[in-house]
Amino acid sequence: AHPITLTAAIGICVGSFISGGTLTPDFTRYARTPRIATSSTVIAFLLGNSLMFLFGAVAAAFYQTNDISFALKAQGMIAISILVLGLNIWTTNDNALYAASLGFATLTHRSKRQFVLINGFLGTVFATAAYNHFVPWLNLLNLMLPSIGAILILDHFVIRRRSPEAPCTRPIHWAAILAWACGFCAAKFLPGIPPLNTMLAASAAYLLLARRPTPPTGGSTKN
Question: pTM to 2 decimals?
Answer without folding.
Answer: 0.71
